[in-house]
Batch of 3 targets.
Target 1
Amino acid sequence: MDLQLAGRRLLITGASSGIGLATARLLAEEGARLALCARDEDRLRTATADLGARTDVVTASCDVTSRASVDAFVATAVDRLGGLDGVVCNAGRSLMRSLDETTDEEIRDEFDLKIFGALHVIRATRTALAASDRGAVVIVNAILSRQPETRLAVTSAARAGLLNLSSSLAEELAADGTRVNSVLLGLIDTGQWQRRFAESGADDFAAWSAEIADDRGIALGRFGSADELAFPIATLLSPRNSYTTGATLEVGGGVHRYV
Ligand code: NDP
């Protein structure tokens, strides 16, 4: 099946690692032209160095919590790619702490990252996406947005806000012909979890993560991989998926306790 992504001009935030990087790789294989950002530009360039041989790739340092930084990145992307057809709001991380352990400033930072990290990008790209024949936004969010967890209290609240925002944006941007959909993740083996594994003192990632998967009630009994997220994201970006908007796609390995 041809997803008709060849030549599409797509922007991904948080593309130096994990889900963003895996998505960039898949889209490059499909022949899409890419604008990629992360805060650490050296790490981004190193991680994506091989993609330039396949397709046009624009890389830039950008902090999605800064409107000015996002505006500058988007302006460069639109200029270099000649417009935009799709955006993946992916940059971020989770704050794993109970409310008791979290300062007010950390709470504000978390809301800033989750809400403005997507909103700045959508505002900055709106005109370019409206000019596309089939503009699409994919917001990378988490199942936590519907099922909060105690040690992820602030992240869960911010994610719920982002999910509601996505539904509102899907209605508002429909007037431009732009679709807005969310992918809700379960537990995915990326930089975030590798950092937690390193801090845990455990020595076998497979056993450590299988125990967490079991504890969380993941039917498939394991974490997902970043590659397993790249395909659902690509299908939501595809112009062939032209009647899907305001939707949420759960990719969580069958987390049955959320049913
Ligand atoms: P990684 O840590 O592997 O990658 C995160 C990426 O985001 C990096 O490229 C990082 O680069 C970038 N980034 C972080 N903060 C910013 C910022 N302020 N501005 C621009 N770029 C930023 O994480 P994942 O691939 O796991 O995470 C991708 C998304 O999925 C995140 O939003 C995460 O919260 C979400 N998610 C992940 C889950 C999981 O289990 N892995 C579960 C639920 C949601 P740099 O640090 O250089 O900026």
Target 2
Amino acid sequence: MKDMDSNPRYSHRPQSMNGYEEAVEFLPATDTKKVEKRDPRWKFVVIGVVIGAAVISLAVGLLVWHFAYRMARVPKVYTGSVRINNYVFVDAYENSSTPEFKQLANKVKDMLGELYRGQKDIGPHFTESYVTAFSEGSVIAYYLSEFSVPSYKAEVLDNAVLNLKIQSVNLRMRQILSVDSFEAYPLDANLARSFRNNSCSYFLHAKPGEVTKFSTPGFPNTPYPPNMRCQWTLRADAGHVIRLHFKTFKMDICKDLTGDYVKLYDSLSIAENRRMMTLCGSYPPSYNLTFFSSQNVMLVTLVTDSKGRQPGFMAQFRQIPQTTLCGGIIRNSEGVITSPFYPAHYQANRECIWDIQVPGDKYVKIRFNMFYLLETGASENSCTKDFVEINHQKYCGEKKPFVVSSNSNKMTVRFRSDQSVTDTGFTADYLSYDSQNPCPDKFTCKDRRCINMAQQCDGWNDCSDFSDELNCNCSASQFRCKNSQICKPKFFLCDGVDDCGDRSDEKDCGCPDNNFQCTNKKCIPEAQKCDKTDNCGDGSDEIGCPEVPPNTCTKFTYKCKNNQCITKTNPDCDGVQDCQDGSDEDTNMCNCGKRPYSRKTRIVGGVNADVGEFPWQVSLHARNDGHACGASLVSPTLLLSAAHCFQDLQGIRYSDPSLWTAYLGLHNQAQRTSQNVVQRSIKRIVAHKSFSDYTYDNDIAMLELSSPVTYTDFIQPICIPDSTRTFPVGKSLWVTGWGALIEGGTGASVLQKADIRIINYNECNQLLENQLTERMICAGFVSGGIDACQGDSGGPLSSLESNNKMYLAGVVSWGDGCARRNKPGIYTNVTAMRDWIKVNTGL
Ligand code: 4AZ
């Protein structure tokens, strides 16, 4: 073998050194002479070697990839159904152990095998098929087919299976089984396997006139087990459909199908294209979780992950005669139409057409009060899935109330649902109107909706298409938004809220030179920053000052139990320990503001709260008066309310605790004996000593219950904000109560909720003729319409904060009437009362 080094071509020795043992020598870069002496071809050799090695490793890599990955087989599963014409359904087909089932199942398996084997992209990969169930029509067979395919051919297989046509079955087979439709849908192989091997399968057939119940294993005494795959096959007699209703639904929250979930199928196969709904989390009992099948079968599946901790669900179903009747010819001048079974979920595969015709000289308009035709991921522009069509215009998704009108006395409304994913549908009023005068004594919106004259040019989009706010002359107290040209109150300028929708009200809000802009947008001279005085009013000019060490205490820093001060805003209960002693995350303090039923609800009427939605809301009944005031639960024994509720009046000793009864977990005043409701007498009332029944300053009181309550899904405490927590102008909050529905009117039976916004203090003080003190905050709408009212007093103004907990921002206190224009409601400022609360409750 040749020694490379002896070959001059490869020698790295200087030629002149031939024959000497070389010493290691590093060439100085400047020693050009020595460098020049090298044979230049050596470079090509090195490059050649490198390229050669690269080619070899690439080839090896490709081979490994080809055999280890590309050729590696992956399991593929498809599920679906085939319809068989030349068989008649018999009861024995409902039971997979009967000879009848097995015989027909074998024929279907043979047919599927032949169908697959006849296709070059499918046949070689086919492993096995199973028939999982049959149903009527003539006979529909539900199957699972398994394949094993090299990964690089998986996509080809997918396309081939999904595009398979039943006509490809050979003639001989077709004479045995006359099949006229074939559906296939890919299925996660692991999921398919776990469902097939599972013992948690139930087969239920509705009994005429009876309700059949079923629930998750262990319900309601023990939580459902972890890692479960359960399925319930629901059947009804031929000519019937299934009405399924979940009476209780309490499962873990799920996200992108991790966690626990239930799926409902309008079929007996777990094919996604037949999925009606995925359910997870918790639904309040009042949520109408009712579903209807389009045929006489339905499948319910349950998947749980490794940590099932919730009670699960209890459901019941019954059969109702199948009817395809919906829509119709309407000749009345007004009425109501709804999607089938509203507010239950409408069925898949339905079409309803309403042909509305009113007297010849009138036009028709229709107002959709509720509109939920939503399928996550579906396009709301093209409405290719479920939709309502009027005058060739399609509507779909989830919509706020809207009006559609026609320029003639006729209107055709068409509702169409496709075969998957249903929603609660719609309810709508239609009516005829005089084409010359659509809104007598009212303002006519562009969409022909009628609003009160006073709502025109008031800065609020009452028509929902802004037509009431166009071409208005802005008054001296208003400014004009840039894009929409709408007039808005001037105090919306620079308040940190995008009131115009184009931020034009929040532009040019910077402070002049040598000024500091506070967090509340106020401008103060730069020199006032860090002067140890709160010039901003929100303390932001005294935070982060260089001479102030990070943990220095000010009025605006959070104080830990050990007196350490935290400059971070809202450090309490945010999941991060900021205090060395951990007191900002104290479990007792942070066990508040939770809503077991946090799901968005869709209740007819709009302002009814949902059961359990505000579990800290308390109704205070005064003997002989019934409900008189609201209050908020803040601990197992303590309530916060308004001091003015407990002032002796007209000879009645409202300050006497024995006069009062507290109802907790209450939803409907007429159902105070419901099992969710807990009743307590009051042991002690402490009203703020400085409460003034002239100014309503310091309108706060603490009530002690006769004995502690146990927290439940319907009874939970609200969080008390630290004195440093701010509820900024424009923030939306909930006011709740059983107070009067209109000024001077009677109270509500069902707890009401209203979404209102914090209003700028100075502007509100102007509107209320300087009657505010620092212990009051304003919330509502300057335009009026939504407000607290008599009987709501003492109740909570609840704010959902970034830690996903509800905080008591205010206590309903007073107002100039209810819901009047320019007269927002006034609330006790709870943060301003923090020290009083601490002293009087220990919280
Ligand atoms: C009341 O009399 C009352 N509009 C409470 C709140 C409001 C008005 C009156 C606010 O209890």
Target 3
Amino acid sequence: MDFDVQKLILQALGARTKAYAPYSGYHVGAALLSGQGRAYPGCNVENASYGATICAERVAFLRAVQEGERDFKAIAIVGGMANQRPEDYAFPCGLCRQVMSEFCKEDFVIIAAKTLEDYKVCTLGELLPHGFGSAQLK
Ligand code: THU
């Protein structure tokens, strides 16, 4: 990989400290790396109307797109219960995979991390095969 994975995980860990998750208690942080090498952080933002909750990954994408970014390389994600070390790898939910597919190709890298040393790397193509996209609407 032509970027610093641990640096991106560190940024996701930093974003996780900002999570607003009073209902689930599950705190997620993400750091989205643009093609130009800029990182956009995101945390989950919950709502009393549960369906209005926004995942950390989508917050990161919305921030980046609003800044004019359209080219993305990778995202690091860290999730776990508040005040605890992540017990498991936090892979993105289906909605987030779909949002990723709007802006990213199959080789987009997804890093699900527990710590700086303990992480799994996969691609969007592996996590969302045969996805629905703009090609279907032509
Ligand atoms: N969550 C994320 O932030 N990203 C995911 O990919 C899955 C779930 C959040 C949403 C909610 O605030 C909490 O985790 C529990 O579902």
